[in-house]
Amino acid sequence: MSQWSQVQQLEIKFLEQVDQFYDDNFPMEIRHLLAQWIESQDWEAASNNEAMATILLQNLLIQVDEQLDRVSQEKNLLLIHNLKRIRKLLQGKYHGNPMHIAVIISNCLREERRILAAASMPVQGPLEKSLQSSVVSERQRNVEHKVSAIKNSAQMTDQDVKYLEDLQEEFDFRYKTIQSLEQSDKNSVLIKQEMLALQAMLNTLDYKRKEVLSKIGRVIHEIDVLMGNMLTEELLDWKRRQQIACIGGPLHGGLDQLQNCFTLLAESLFQVRRQLEKLDELLTRLTYDGDPIPVQRPQLLEKVNFLLYNLFRNSFVVERQPCMPTHPQRPMVLKTLIQFTVKLRLLIKLPELNYQIRVKATIDNNRRFVLCGTHVKAMNMDESANGSLSVEFRHLQPKEMKSSAGSKGNEGPHMVTEELHSISFETQVCLYGLTINLETSSLPVVMISNVSQLPNAWASIIWYNLSTNDPQNLSFFNNPPAAPLNQLLEVLSWQFSSYVGRGLNSEQLNMLAEKLTGQQVSYNDYQLSWAKFCKEHLPGKSFTFWVWLEAILDLIKKHILPLWIDGYIMGFVSKEKERILLKDKTPGTFLLRFSESNLGGITFTWVDQLENGDVTFHSVEPYNKGRLSALPFADILRDYKVIMADNVPENPLKYLYPDIPKDKAFGKHYSCQPNEVSKPSDGGGKGYVPSVFIPVSKILNDSTDPHSPSDLLPMSPSVYAVLREHLSPTVIETAVCCKLLHS
């Protein structure tokens, strides 16, 4: 079943979440019509490879054209209209930046996987629940409402200033008219009446000046309160959501809404600034005793400038954290001399700033590393599909200085994966007489010199972003705090949902909890130390918990991904629990679990029944990536044989736990079908005896201990003869075909 088909079967509350991230950037109609094709492409790799992204965009447009041809024949007018509009939209938005649509589609697919994983969980995890709080949503709506009200107030004040300007011009005209009269005329009754009228007008001017200044003061106060409370909280929440998304959590939407709020506030402040400038002009033409403008205007202008400085400083954010294109799901881990990408955005989107802001990237202040490549670029509105004012650095490389690496050069293995660094960015905004220096930094990154350091470096990134919302605590690992076990388990499930397409259920998480703590504990109360997670070896093992788990992720990704996504691998179950599960099942029932003693190994255990009625269990030696590179795991399950004491080979695997026929579960993953193979020649080639790769184990009747399979070893002629005697030619032909395919 395709991922999209699974999505469509979700409950309405999960479908509403899916609906939130499909818009004109990637319309849901395209996701629906091209579901299988979209899921078969590597959008994740294309999001950091421009050439690959260009090809995928072209192929996407071709797929849309094919759908257009199909619906045109069906005369579906509405769908024809929508597809034409969508094709034009995709072509226009992404022609100059194809990687952006790759990022969008990759994020959508990832978010679908996360929602599918969440739907399979009995309850929502504590971290995700906190990120989707109704209080947060209500605050977002309040911020947008208040920003809109402030914008309207500023515009209404514009009308008041214009009325004040018109009133003062009338006063000036009438006053100058009287001043131009002869002295004798000024003593007339009409002139005296006019003077009284002018005094009344001056009183009105004074009242209006005070009223305008009061309204400007209220707008400034409302902006100040909003920036100091709700808007700051919104920005901090977005940054926290970004942290969580970086370690596999829900996508961190909301930046466009924040940009809209920041931009409207900036426009309102500049509008108020112009109003104060207009009042200054009016002051130069007319002032009087008790005039409020010279008293209040300087204070108000100083406050406006202060708010603009703060607004601009807060608006300079890292939109996409540093990430190597080669490891898109491991952000903030950077390898020396390998390019990484990072994207920044100014949330104040003003046309006057397009291509006027040059951003400089640097790393740390300790001079241990330097950045090579283009580290100064101008922000613009042309590279982003949504027209945001942003800049993306795509060719930066961290380089370790030789002086810090000793006499053997600058790429030694001495780097510590708990040592945090920071990528900093600075720029200057010059606008309407204001000059504002802006600075921001990435979340802490970990430097590595060899990919073998990547797992532990990623563990550091997980622990940091789970444990703190401080964006710049580079000394964090001097004394790393413990983490709540319930939140850590949620993050571990995200590693599976984001990296291999399926998260962990409660039973699997229970097993991991017991492995981490050595006991059955309450999720909500237990605090796990950093040492237990990543530093101390598991009891009786030569590796840590995290190294063990990372090896399993790697095994799934490279060798058994389809089986994992289908949910047929129980995976995380102890030997004791598997026997409890299997003991009452039909003989031949088996389950698949990850090895606890071997890194990156998977094994299967089946239940059997002895002649006296006793139940027995058999487990094979775990298959690692070396063996699975030679023969697909589904084929191993299909072809696996055991030879009992009487040398009769048979496949003991009948039903996948609890009672799914083996071929029903794995049939679609077999690399070849019996009716698709041709019969091999009986005589072999060039005088050699033909060899057949079939996983075989020999089990003695009086043994219940696990046995090692003679996997992927050429069979002796005597064993081959036994197989030919007891197995059909079709089974042997299938095995030969698989051998030829994978040799």
Automatic annotation (TrEMBL):
Principal location class: cytoplasm
GO biological process: cell surface receptor signaling pathway via JAK-STAT; defense response to virus; negative regulation of developmental process; regulation of apoptotic process; type I interferon-mediated signaling pathway; type II interferon-mediated signaling pathway
Record's subcellular location: Cytoplasm; Nucleus
Record Pfam families: SH2, STAT_alpha, STAT_bind, STAT_int, STAT_linker
One MF annotation (Gene Ontology) recorded for this entry: DNA-binding transcription factor activity, RNA polymerase II-specific
Family annotation (InterPro entries): p53-like_TF_DNA-bd_sf, SH2, SH2_dom_sf, STAT, STAT4_CC, STAT4_DBD, STAT4_SH2, STAT_linker
Domain SH2, residue spans: 564-666
Protein name (record): Signal transducer and activator of transcription
Organism the protein comes from: Bucorvus abyssinicus (Northern ground-hornbill)
Gene, per the UniProt record: Stat4
